[in-house]
């Protein structure tokens, strides 16, 4: 039979296990990234290309990554603007509906939450 204190201890232990598992996942991810980076550097060093060719490929790769980053930033900005528009429309619709309900029911002092938006 487990008493209340025992239950609390078990819950605390389960929380520690959860945190420990998350820590292990984080450590595994970091180890994977370090290994991938080391493998990439090794591949670059032992690739059968001249230094000029390698520098050219690296420069092109950097340009491609920059272009992709700019593209993603533009897409994120456009999505943010769309979401802002949708939120504004929803807020306006809510306020309109609230005003209609208040106008239709003057006997009730308050229909819905106060407008603080």
Task: List its salient traits.
single chain; 117 residues; mainly alpha
Q: Would you kindly provide a written description of the structure presented here, covering whatever features stand out?
A:
The chain is mainly alpha-helical. The chain has 2 domains: about 10-45; about 50-100. Helix content is about 85%, strand content about 0%. It has 2 helices and no strands. The chain has helices spanning about 5-45, 50-105. It is elongated, with a radius of gyration of 29 Å.
Task: Give a short summary of the structure.
With 117 residues, this protein is an all-alpha fold. It contains two helices and no strands.
What is the number of E strands? 0
- Taken together, the total number of domains comes to 2
Strand portion: under 5%
- Summarize the main sheet: none
Overall mean pLDDT: 77
> What would you call the structural class?
mainly alpha
Spatial gap, N to C terminus: 53 Å
Share of helical residues: over 70%
Number of helices: 2
| Oligomer state of the chains in this structure | single chain
Strand and helix order: HH
Describe the protein's topology.
Blueprint: H1 4-46, H2 51-104
